[in-house]
Amino acid sequence: DDFCDLGFPLSDQDNQTRQIQDAVSNVEKHFGELCQIFAGYVRKTARLRDKADLLVNEIYAYAATETPNLKVGLKNFADEFSRLQDYRQAEVDRLEAKVVEPLKSYGTIVKLKRDDLKATLTAKNREAKQLSQLEKTRQRNPSDRHIISPG
């Protein structure tokens, strides 16, 4: 009666189930944290890019009011600074696509795994209850033992 459908003694199966639950919870906790932190990093990087864009616009505005030599220097500086923001935008896009989105998908995967685990445990508990009831029935009716047999 310590046999289960996977062929493990109940204590081994319980340990295996606990390990699976712990692994799912561990992934859920750490991947959730990683996803939130990376998303925050991406948002802050995007805000920094936005601030830099404001700075570039202000440099252009200032250049428009200056002498020709200073105007050229300021515009060249603003152009280069603007190109740097293009790289920052590429960083934001790549982090979002290559890091944040895949981490978010793990949230769905973990939820599905948790649901699968819950369904498996429910089935296991239902089966254990049925086996227990069968054993009680056998004990009450020892003469019918040959008729009352599992599945």
From TrEMBL:
<dbReference type="GO" id="GO:0005743">
    <property type="term" value="C:mitochondrial inner membrane"/>
</dbReference>
<dbReference type="GO" id="GO:0005814">
    <property type="term" value="C:centriole"/>
</dbReference>
<keyword id="KW-0809">Transit peptide</keyword>
<keyword id="KW-0472">Membrane</keyword>
<dbReference type="GO" id="GO:0060271">
    <property type="term" value="P:cilium assembly"/>
</dbReference>
<keyword id="KW-0496">Mitochondrion</keyword>
<dbReference type="InterPro" id="IPR027267">
    <property type="entry name" value="AH/BAR_dom_sf"/>
</dbReference>
<dbReference type="GO" id="GO:0030154">
    <property type="term" value="P:cell differentiation"/>
</dbReference>
<dbReference type="GO" id="GO:0031514">
    <property type="term" value="C:motile cilium"/>
</dbReference>
<keyword id="KW-0539">Nucleus</keyword>
<dbReference type="InterPro" id="IPR009602">
    <property type="entry name" value="CBAR/FAM92"/>
</dbReference>
<dbReference type="GO" id="GO:0007283">
    <property type="term" value="P:spermatogenesis"/>
</dbReference>
<keyword id="KW-0969">Cilium</keyword>
<dbReference type="GO" id="GO:0035869">
    <property type="term" value="C:ciliary transition zone"/>
</dbReference>
<keyword id="KW-0999">Mitochondrion inner membrane</keyword>
<dbReference type="GO" id="GO:0005634">
    <property type="term" value="C:nucleus"/>
</dbReference>
<protein>
    <recommendedName>
        <fullName>Family with sequence similarity 92 member A</fullName>
    </recommendedName>
</protein>
<keyword id="KW-0744">Spermatogenesis</keyword>
<feature type="region of interest" description="Disordered">
    <location>
        <begin position="130"/>
        <end position="151"/>
    </location>
</feature>
<keyword id="KW-0282">Flagellum</keyword>
<keyword id="KW-0966">Cell projection</keyword>
<dbReference type="GO" id="GO:0036064">
    <property type="term" value="C:ciliary basal body"/>
</dbReference>
<dbReference type="Pfam" id="PF06730">
    <property type="entry name" value="FAM92"/>
</dbReference>
<keyword id="KW-0221">Differentiation</keyword>
